[in-house]
Each structure stands twice: as structure tokens, then as C-alpha cells.
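Q: I have 381 residues here and want to know how they pack in 3D. Can you give me a structure?
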Amino acid sequence: MKNRTTHLAFPLILLLAGVSGAMFNSCKKSPTETTLVNKAPQTFMWVDTIGNVLTSQVKLHWWGDDPDGFIFGYFVAVDGVTWRFTTANESTFVINIGSNNIDTSKLQVAAVDKEGNGRWDALVSAGGINFGSEPFVDQDNNGTYSSGEPYIDLGAVDPTPAKLSVVIKNSPPVVAFDNNSRLPVKTLPIASVLFSATDIDGNGTIKEFFVVLNDTSDTSWTKIPNTVSLLTLVGNLSDTSASVVSAALKSGISAEDLGVNIKNLRLNQNNILYLYCTDLTGARSKIVRMPDTTKTWFVQKPSGRRTLLLVDDYGTANPNPDLVYKTALQQATNSQNVSYGDYDVLDLNGQPVSATVAAPMILETMKLYPYVFWYGKLTNL
């Protein structure tokens, strides 16, 4: 019996130890259940012209490395204050240096991983940097996030963004009137001009144009969009006694109204149209003028009732058609027995209009008159 008792007790002790061990281990976390702390990614970037003085357009490349996951996207800042989120790995930035000729800008990029927390965050921060809120789609257009709106659930952000200092030198744009669209020496209060602008920082940096008539003081300029290259001025002739009027500005071959006016169109006097442009950095081009200093542009005030426009497109002949038609019109009368002798003349032979601007300039001139008498030669028959 003693031996049996000893024999039976040994397995019992082992069994109890096993139970006790099982109960002890159940209070610990399994090695596979250990909570992992999400590690922040690291960011790297470069420019292909590093070490050189750059134009105001900088093409920047970047990438990220996440030790325990995948990169979702990047926060990017060109001023160190305003951050925007992107999933791209490169972009071309226009650095706004205002009127400065040379400036040093600090470009920063912070990688973001995919380990989001499943909710929209109004503030994303890391390393003491406020990156703003998580991007979202503002479906109700109220300017703030509303429950249910789609958003990008961002993970950890690099607390030490990659930084790159580049030296920026801005080049002002250049604007010029087209050499083939010179104004005639004399016109009625309608004129069309063609111009263009360039910028070695990229023509896409041209922001807007400014025009003025006769007076280049700072408050006189009228702004027009950067999409305009063919501009037509149409004088306001509602006040027949006025010697100085405003002019509506129209764009393109079809002369679409821009909804803005230019002041100081002088009737029966010489006029000068001035033009300059600005780029996205605020730099201004030199002011150019039409006509140039070797020529003049006289704007003739329409005569009398502004009833009839005579378009002279003939040239010289014998007998002189100018005398024939003009004499006939002076003798012609309307139903009230009033002569048509107070007509105005658009002389396309003596004062030809450039082919590049002829369509809007001639058409807008004709629109001023209820009657047009056009005579010219038939060619190429």
C-alpha cells in the first residue's frame, strides 16, 4: 500500500502543477498578441538642378520609407506653414517671391503611412508640426467636415520632414505687340491689336495683362485676363458732345465682350495704348506702347448723325471712284429729304487694316452704323 500510494501521488502532483501552470500562463499575453507601435515613416527628396540658382518654377521629387508598412502619401509645404496632402511623388511649384529678385525658399515634405485610426481627424500633427486636417470631400459645401463625408484616413506622419533650401531667382515676363498688327495712322473709335507675352520661368506663369490709354499713372490701368491676345477697343459714342470717352474691351476674332472698359479715348486727337503683364510671383514686364514712338494713331470722331459708313476699298482709277461715289452720296437723301453727306469713311486702301486684326476691327466699326456703302475692286476672277 505504501508503494501504491507513492506511485499514485506522483502523477497527481504533476497534474496539479500542470493545471497551476496553465492558470498562471493564462494571465499573460501570448507573444503573438503583443501590441505593436506603428513607426513613423522617413522622407527624402531632391531636385535635378540642386546647387544651381533656379527660376521661380521648381520641379521637386520625393519618396518615403516606412519600416513597418506602406506609404500612403505626403504633406508638402513651400513656405513651411501651409501644408497640402498629395499622393504624387513629384510636382512643379511656383515659388511666390513677390518683387524680390533673389530669394531662398525652404521646401518641405513629410511622408504619411497607411495606418489610420478609422475616424476623421481635425488635426494631424507630428514633431510639433500642425499639418492641418485629414483631407475630405466637402459634399455639402459648408467648409467643414460633416459626418458621413468621404475622407482620407491618414496614419503616422514623419515628425522630421525632409527639407531642401533652394535659391530662387525670378525673371520678369516680356510682353510685345505683334509687328504685323500695327494700327493705321487714322481710325474711327474702333481699334484692334494683337500681342503676346513670354516668361523664361514658363509661359504658364503669366498671370494677367494691364492696359491703359494715354495716361500711365498707377490708378488708370485696366486688368484683362491672361487668355487675351487679340484685343478690340470699341468707343462709347452715346454722348455725341464728348471729346473723351471710354471704350469697351472685347477679345478674339469674334470680339467677345470682356465686361470691362478702358478710359480716356480721345476723339479727334492722337492716342497711345500702353500694355504690360505680370507673372504669378508679382513681377511686372516693361511697359510697351502702340503705336511706337515713330508713328501716331489719330482717332476720328464720327460725323453728324452716324448714319452711313463709306468703306473705301478700291484704290486709284480714272475716273476717281472716290469722287464719284462721294458726290453721289452727298446728293442722295432719305425719306425726310436729309442728305447722306455726313457719312464717315473707313479707308481700307489709304489706311489698310492688318489682316491679323481685320475681322474684329472692321466688323465692330460697321456695327456703329445702320447703313454701310462698301466699294472695291474684284480680284482673282
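Q: Anything worth noting?
A: The chain is about 10% helix and 35% strand. The CA atoms of residues 270 and 298 lie 4 Å apart.
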